[in-house]
Structures are given as C-alpha cells and as structure tokens.
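Revision sheet: structure tokens.
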Amino acid sequence: MPHAGGWGVAHPDRDAQLQLRIPVHQHAPVRHNLRGGRRRMKDRFLTAADGSTIYVTMDGDTVDAVAYARFGVHAKHTEEIYELNPHLVLLDVVLPAGVTIKLPAATVQAPQPRPTRQLWE
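Predicted:
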C-alpha cells in the first residue's frame, strides 16, 4: 500500500525517463575463491629467461589477487606490480586471459625485535 507522503507511488512518465539500459555480458568474470583459485594461481607463476618471476593471467584475475597469491598480502605489492607493468593501467580491473605480468622480487624482511624494559639490575 502506498505511503501517504507519496512513497511507493508509480509515476509512469518519470519512471520511463529513469530507466537505464545496462549491457549484460554473456560471460560473467570468473571469481576466485581463496582455496581453489589461489591454488590454481600458484601453478601459473613462471620464471622468465632473465630470472624474474612472471604470471600469465586467466579470465577473471585481478592484480591484487595475483599479488595476494604470490606474496600473501597485496597492500604494497599491488602498487609495485603496476609500476613494473604500466600496460596494466590500460586494461580493466578484471584482467582477460593471456596477459603477462612481471612480478617484483619477493623481499624477506627480518622481524624487528620488540623493545624491552629492564625490570631489575
């Protein structure tokens, strides 16, 4: 039942003007779950002739998902991947299959010692 203030009342002229035509893709992008998708992604990391690590995308991959699959975190590594691969900026967020991505070297940082206090002499 429509609200007395006009909420929920249909306005045929206005509704016809507000209709948006949104294109429907025949194939929705493939979304990876962290279990199966990450495992499949790890199989696609390759070593290039110069010794660097590359990744060849599958349909539905994203740069941050590739960074997460390779490094375990994507925070700073996603930006590094974009710096090494300027061609990725021209592509959609969801990458098509067959895009070669050069990956930054994995840096292992030693854990920083926590500051301690001496309780007695």
